[in-house]
Fold this sequence. Notes:
The protein is an alpha/beta fold and 452 residues long. Helices cover 40% and strands 18% of the residues. Helix 2 packs parallel to helix 6 (135-149), helix 4 (70-83) crosses helix 11 and helix 8 (193-200) runs parallel beside helix 9 (219-227).
Amino acid sequence: MSVSSASQPSPATPDSTASLTEWLNYMQHIHVSAIDMGLSRVLPVAQYLGVVQSAKDDAYVFTVAGTNGKGSTTAVIAAMTQAAGYKTALYQSPHLSVFNERVRINGEMVSDETLIDAFNSVERARLACELTLSFFEMTTLAALLIFANADCDVWVLEVGLGGRLDVVNIIDPDLAVITNISIDHIDWLGDNTEDIGREKAGILRQGIPLIYGAYEMPNSVRKLIDEQDITCYQAEQDFGYRNLDIQRWQYSNAAVTLELPRSALSLTNTANALSAVLASPLKVDSAAIKQALQTVKLAGRFDYRTLDNRHWLFDVAHNEQGVAFLLAQLLPLWQQHLQEQAQKTSSAQTGTIKMLFSMLGDKDIEGVVQQLTQADLPISEWFIAEIDYPRAASTEQLKGVLTAYADTDSIKEFANLAQAVQAVIEASTEQDLIVVCGSFHTIGESLAVLNS
């Protein structure tokens, strides 16, 4: 339902001296709800700005939906097209540290000034159309306007929530990717994969290619593929990959077999991204593909770092499928870590895994904890604290779930994540691996502490 600016009180538009932070705070308070799915309000503003026509006429658009892996998939697509010489726009959400992470051109975050100019333009268009928009709608329109003004050759767009009613879906894709479909955001998308699949497949358009990145496909998705004459390339049927060793992997489809360097990101998501690029008409050769895989990174996605003389792994996994992806890569990383530490020291002592963990209260905390505790990993301690976010699970809620699966003495509670970060540093050694997971917010707050 549309809400006019006349009927919905809102703060005054920031003036010409306003900072990016002031603009972001303003946009969080001009609409009745943080999430308001539907395109009826946002389309008139987008058309007023001309962003829909710009994308249709001037750019090749990849749109990526799915439950998990959207960030990695979009990052790899963008890296490959950029390496091939295309001016590439990348839109992702949410961010970990600074808002600018969401809007990139040729890998570089756009400036505060560029964002502020775009917010001003979107605000003028919104007022002219006498509509209110949510924070996500305002900021996504600003990103699309920036890409249009920059005359980008390729747009790589990550869907925020669902697909059919997400603001990203105002742009018609030339190629769609659905990474996978599992249960998440049940309040908005449904509590079964058929309903969720129908929402995510809302990004499809008549006759365009689809990369479907999982073996299991809901009937609702298959029905839309048939109705819209979609050419679908599905994982494990039309393309696949195998791991060769710690540095190499092999991708294959009906037309090519490529031996490639491993990237820092999930091979599943990398294979989906490569399939999308190969299914497009863009000229991306094997040299560009290899260059992209050797350089692409994404903060918070199987993100291994050495900081403060400690070994850290940051991963935004926050549902069962995400944790399954994490564990599939964590087990070999742990073995590699042990080998490296054994070569560095003659000590008989071996390290352990220490978990820095927090989640949002509306996620499946028990399902995630059960997977992590039942994995064949030496988790010695859990450091838990409440995220500084309205939907955060309380420390009591986290502990209540953990005590059913982990030794009570191994659970350490803290007032905030800053204290938890400091505590895990003090309680660990160079031989240990600190795994930080559970939410984008868990990673963002932890990195903010470490970077400060």
